[in-house]
UniProtKB/TrEMBL annotation:
Gene3D superfamilies named among the record's database cross-references: FAD/NAD(P)-binding domain, GidA associated domain, C-terminal subdomain
SUPFAM superfamilies given in the database record: FAD/NAD(P)-binding domain
Species for this entry: Parambassis ranga
Record GO cellular component, one term: mitochondrion
Protein name in UniProt: 5-taurinomethyluridine-[tRNA] synthase subunit MTO1, mitochondrial isoform X2
Gene Ontology process terms (BP): mitochondrial tRNA wobble uridine modification; tRNA methylation
């Protein structure tokens, strides 16, 4: 599937932009504004749904650009990539194509919370996305800057409710559409910061989104707009780093692909590159402190990403500590390292001083300095679960414009906004994904029901049903629905998902039907440790739950009934391990939901109660002091696990 050769980037760009020159159509079903991670998924999904779609973006050659870290996936984020892939999106296959260092994060924990991740070759990722868009039927890609949204005046029958009718380009050229998806990323009223210098921009080298667009959102549609910030590290010349002073970090020996259609990754072990780990020194902290007075970005109150903080924020929050710095390759043939953990906005000369305080980088050279960006976002509580603006029919928002951070969060929203924009244009009812079936549902529900006060990042702890929402089963959860109910999945992918589902079902029945007494199991598989056996008769499914038991071992002992399912050994093992967890988890959540109205005493000392709560959760509870458990559940940053701890504490101390 992914072994095809892509044409060189230059010829691709010409091909992608060709519809522009022939472009006569002034009416589309769906227009997507912005060719970042949200916009590309939205445009491809809308076209897959059967809508005539136009993607308008400032620069075609930046379509699919990775603005910051060249990596995809991670804890919680990997689950989103798998789900986007299960709904036939682009980013999983692009990640497999461009991956140069695959690893599963969180492997010491259970497979439900493993985080599939890959370091990427920037250029290959962009090439793949551009090539896919080019070959998507019903999709036109056009270079241009959208200056304004075309919206009707409020409908007298529905006060305060507008309808989007299209967009207007810089040349005052209007283009009509039934639905518009806005995915302006970090570009809406964007400003760039380095040291004391501020300039308008959405990303280095790119102009911000026009003031007209912000005006329409704020003044004409009356939307509440907030401001957030983020930053990126300087890029370091590879040859200038002393690799004898860093710790080598090899990729997994068997790379796990993101895409369910990719049964093997393109990357052979020899086609992968290592990453390196090093640490900050007290000298780094000294330079941060000495440069604070010339660092505008850090002096602002605007909220930045809590889980991807700048080195300035890390040093100020945790003084005296040594912080990790990962040196990650920017591509297979790139001469640069991306130093993850060293995002910074001080003046370039201070940036050089800072990195040279790290022993492995004492002679390092900076290729491009780090910088910060501040941008407008639309408070996402003004959206429906279909990502449609509540007071404007046909207008959908996705990605960083909704207050999230990260490519995966953007891609997931983009896909779902594209699906619904197409459904709206094709006069079909819009759809929502629930928290119980997907991380995409969790993400969107968190955004539209709780809103954001700082850039939102996905974590497994945000999903109550995480033992069932696993990376391994995203196809079973979403591909079938995506084809049968939503309409965004191709029949090729659907047929494969049906085959997988039927085979797994047969295998589970075979395991369930395999019943032996405990002594007979012991006789058949002498190495098996059965110290915890409670029942005398055990099924193959029960036995597969043991740590030291693999499906391969069972299949060797009972080849006649199990060997035909070896292709799914790992998935079957995971199913067996999680079956009891899933059942318990569901009951626990149901119990908590019943206790929504439980009162929380107003004198609880959240900062010191002896329960398992993170510092972040303690601070939020202490600040807000919710009156009921239900109110605590709806606070941004309060995880389902924290609610369980709080519930148990209040019950216990009653
Ligand atoms: P983007 O990828 O930003 O894409 C927006 C697209 O819209 C661009 O192609 C732009 O040209 C186009 N566009 C905007 N306005 C218009 C218009 N009016 N007309 C036509 N086209 C338009 N994420 C992290 O997770 N961690 C980080 O540490 C991090 N640091 C970052 C640092 C910097 C400096 C930047 C710029 C981004 C950083 N990000 C980080 C964010 C990451 O890039 C985004 O989360 C992700 O790219 C969002 O995807 P998106 O599709 O919403 O927007």
């Amino acid at each position: 599937m992914l072994t095809k050769r892509l044409p060189p980037l230059q010829s691709l760009l010409l091909l992608v932009s060709r519809p522009h020159s022939h472009h006569a159509r002034q009416q589309f079903d769906v227009i997507v504004v912005g060719g970042g991670h949200a916009g590309t998924e939205a445009a491809a999904a809308a076209a897959r749904m059967g809508a005539e779609t136009l993607l308008v973006t400032q620069k075609i050659h930046t379509v699919g650009a990775l603005s910051c870290n060249p990596s995809l996936g991670g804890v919680g984020k990997g689950q989103l990539v798998k789900e986007v892939d299960a709904l036939d999106g682009l980013c999983g296959r692009a990640g497999d194509w461009a991956g140069i260092h695959f690893s599963i994060l969180n492997r010491r924990k259970g497979p439900a919370v493993w985080g599939p991740r890959a370091q990427l070759d920037r250029q290959r990722y962009r090439e793949f996305i551009q090539s896919e868009l080019l070959s998507t039927p019903r999709l036109t890609v056009m270079e241009g800057s959208v200056e304004e949204l075309l919206v009707t005046e409020p409908n007298p029958e529905k006060p305060g409710c507008h309808r989007v009718t299209g967009i207007c380009l810089g040349s005052n050229q209007p283009i009509s559409a039934s639905s518009v998806v806005l995915t302006t990323g970090t570009f809406l009223s964007g400003s760039l910061f380095v040291g004391q210098t501020t300039s308008p921009g959405g990303r280095i080298g790119d102009a911000p989104s026009s003031a007209g667009l912000s005006y329409t959102l704020r003044e004409r549609l009356g939307l509440r707009i907030g401001r957030l910030r983020t930053g990126t590290p300087p890029r370091i010349v590879k040859d200038s780093v002393d690799l004898s002073l860093v710790k080598l970090h090899l990729p997994d020996s068997h790379p796990s692909p993101f895409s369910f259609l990719n049964t093997h990754t393109r990357c052979k072990p020899e086609e992968q590159l290592p990453c390196y780990l090093t640490f900050t020194t007290p000298g780094v902290e000294r330079v941060v402190r000495e440069s604070l007075h010339v660092n505008c970005h850090i002096q602002q109150d605007t909220k930045g990403p809590r889980y991807c903080p700048s080195i300035e924020s890390r040093v100020l929050r945790f003084p005296g500590r040594s912080h990790q710095v990962w040196l990650e390759p920017e591509g297979m043939t790139s001469d640069l390292f991306y130093p993850q953990g060293l995002s910074m906005t001080m003046p370039p000369d201070m940036q050089l001083r800072l990195i040279r305080e790290i022993p492995a980088m004492h002679r390092a050279e900076i290729h491009t300095p780090g910088y910060g960006v501040q941008y407008d976002f639309v408070c996402p509580t003004q959206l429906s679960p279909a990502l449609q603006v509540k007071n404007t029919q046909g207008l959908f928002l996705a990605g960083q414009i909704n207050g999230t951070t990260g490519y995966e969060e953007a891609a997931a929203q983009g896909l779902w906004a594209g699906v619904n924009a197409a459904r709206c244009a094709l006069s079909l009812p819009t759809m929502a994904l629930s928290r119980t079936e997907s991380y995409i549902g969790v993400l969107i529900d968190d955004l539209v029901s709780r809103g954001v006060t700082e850039p939102y990042r996905m974590f497994t702890s945000r999903a109550e049903f995480r033992t069932s929402l696993r990376p391994d089963n995203a196809d079973l959860r979403l591909t079938l629905k995506g084809f049968e109910e939503v309409g965004c999945v191709s029949s090729v992918r659907y047929q494969e998902a049906v085959r997988v589902k039927n085979t797994l079902q047969d295998a589970l029945l075979a395991l369930q039907a395999l019943t032996l007494s405990a002594p007979n199991w012991k006789k058949t598989l002498p190495d098996i440790c059965m110290s915890k056996v409670k029942s005398t008769i055990l099924t193959g499914m029960d036995v597969l739950q043991y740590n030291d038991m693999s499906f391969e071992m069972l299949a060797s002992a009972f080849p006649e009934c199990l060997s035909s399912y070896k292709e799914f050994s790992l998935r079957l093992k995971i199913e067996a391990v999680y079956k009891p967890h899933c059942d318990l988890n569901k009951k626990e959540i149901e119990r908590i939901q019943k206790e929504e109205n439980m009162s929380l005493p107003q004198d609880i000392d959240y900062l010191s109660i002896p329960v398992s709560l993170s510092q972040e959760v303690r601070e939020i509870l202490d600040r807000v002091r919710p009156s009921t458990l239900g109110a605590a559940t709806r606070l941004e940053g309060i995880t389902p696990a924290a609610i369980v701890s709080l519930f148990n504490y209040v019950q216990f101390t009653k």
